[in-house]
Amino acid sequence: MKYDPANRIQDLRQFGEFGDVNPSITDSSTYTFLKAELMEATFHGEAEGCFLYSRHWNPTNRYLAEAMALEGTELAWITASGMAAITCSLFQLCNSGDHIITSVTTYGGTYAFLKNYLPKFGIEVSFVNITDLKAVENAIKPNTKCIYTESLTNPLLQVSDIPRLAAIAHRHNILLLVDNTFSPMILSPAILGADIVVYSMTKFINGKNDCVAGAICGSKAFINALSDVNSGTAMLLGPVLDPLRSSSILKNLNTLHIRMKQHSKNADFLARRFAEEGIPVIYPGLPVHPQHELMRSLMNEEYGFGGMLAIDLGTHARANEVMQMMQMEDVGYLAVSLGYFKTLFSASGKSTSSEIPEEEQRKMGLSEGLVRFSVGLDNDIERTWTKIRKCLVRAGII
Ligand code: PLP
């Protein structure tokens, strides 16, 4: 039967303390035990079902973690940000002297962590074009621990061939980690072969831009290792999410499938209009996108090709001019981040990818005039297009 992540969420039975239809929020950092031996056993990971301390596990986070297994993984761990999910996963897997292979196009924060921060710990990183599978395989060395990529890369929207990357990784006894922040519901990386899937839940998963949060989805063994009291990176670095936030994200997760369809429908509409006007546009739903057919073969089709698109306005000055006009016309907000009910746009090269040196940006095809859109949930997207078109005409672009 076809895999549908929405069914995983639909079928969850999570009740509150009094039969509440929303699970109760556990407003405690610590937990009592009736028997001292049970506390000791819980510390040693020898007792199931008991809670010890909320940096270790919190019942509210546990509910959200169960729901985040929408990925088809055994379990998840809830973090206080997407960056915490990424950094804890990589630190859990890698020791000093190890090597990571990653896509050269990734979110700027991830790039900075891999490029500038990991060398402090003697962890080596190779940056490759993730669509060049030969280059990926050629980069593997005896000390390589994992391949890290984004399912849809930020901001160039390259599609990672997850099944083939997983095959390469597993042939060499290493792991594949995928950041699926741009495409929840649409792509199910774990079903496609990824070993660990990370999310910035700040984005589409929560969809409200009211908090920062993340998730690590993987095997029970990996999640247990992360929260081990002696050696777990999540337990020892401590980036746990507050349970009040977990509770609100869990509620928002239940509308994710509807939101993703609308984000995709609207982004597809705008991408086609930009293309008709001769504006260079990157959107995996367009047949001219180099990985359009690949994406079609990997995706859970009914959710579309996602809410992210990018256009190239040539120069940084033009990008700024058009973005400011669009904001004044109420197309959306000139802001970073994504997955919001309103459209957000930003010039990636000078914002969320500014950590990548300009020379590298040009090499990977990130032009200075690139404007990334996270298309909102607008009911009347034709009306939105009329506003965008007006700005493009006024700026002399069309
Ligand atoms: N992964 C991707 C693809 C992102 O775009 C971002 C942030 O923009 C992150 C991870 C980091 O997430 P957070 O801001 O929740 O730490």
Explain how this protein is built.
There is one protein chain. The protein is α/β, with parallel strands linked by helices and 398 residues long. The chain has two domains: 5-253, Aspartate Aminotransferase, domain 2 (3-Layer(aba) Sandwich); 257-394, Aspartate Aminotransferase, domain 1 (Alpha-Beta Complex). The chain is built from 15 helices and twelve strands. A seven-stranded mixed beta sheet has the order 1-7-6-5-4-2-3, sandwiched between helices. The protein has a five-stranded mixed beta sheet with strand order 8-9-12-11-10, covered by helices on one side. It is globular, with a radius of gyration of 21 Å. The termini are far apart. Bound molecules: pyridoxal-5'-phosphate (PLP). Pyridoxal-5'-phosphate binds at residues 81-83, 107, 109, 150, 154, 179, 181-182, 200, 202, 212, 214, 352.
Outline of this structure?
It is built from 15 helices and twelve strands. The protein is an alpha/beta fold.
Order of helices and strands: HHHEHEHEHEHEEEHHHHEHEHEEHEH
Supply the CATH architecture of the largest domain. Answer: 3-Layer(aba) Sandwich
What is the makeup of the main sheet?
7 strands, mixed
What is the name of the CATH topology of the largest domain? Answer: Aspartate Aminotransferase, domain 2
CA-based gyration radius? 21 Å
Tell me the structural class. Answer: alpha/beta
Measured between the Cα atoms of the first and last residue, the distance is 47 Å
Low-confidence stretches: none
Order of strands side by side in the largest beta sheet?
1-7-6-5-4-2-3
